Amino acid sequence: MNDEIVVTPKDNGHMDVEVKPSEAGVVQEFTPLSGMMDITEPSKEDSEKLSTVWDYFKGENKSNAEILYAIKSLENRMAAPSLNESRLNKVYQWVRVRKDIESNEKLLNSL
User: Fold this and answer.
1) For residue 42, what are the CA distances in angstroms to 1, 45, 63, 64, 103?
2) Cα-based angle 1, 25, 62 (whole degrees, multiple of 5)
3) Closest-CA residue to 30 (of 51, 56, 53)
4) pTM
5) Extents of the domains making up the chain
6) pLDDT tens column, 60-108
């Protein structure tokens, strides 16, 4: 469960994604995002947050590398998490607020 995902951006806009399996050879059960966030055994709450963030960035026809790159880019633009706050929680809060904004904009446009 300690697989490592390495995303390397290239100059031509593409990315290389390499998954280095753990010594035990166990396939990671959760999204590749858990590897990027250094979460080896997510709790139920973490799993739900991982799923929500992953689904938000997934979109149509995006590869795992593109999704991970978009999330990492967002993380780099945001302020660092506070002392007791995880990186996942910070990104999850952004996604939750963004979804609320999009939902409210749709509601406003329908009036």
Assistant:
1) 11, 8, 23, 19, 28
2) 65
3) 51
4) 0.68
5) 4-110
6) 788 888 999 999 999 999 998 888 889 999 999 999 999 999 999 999 9
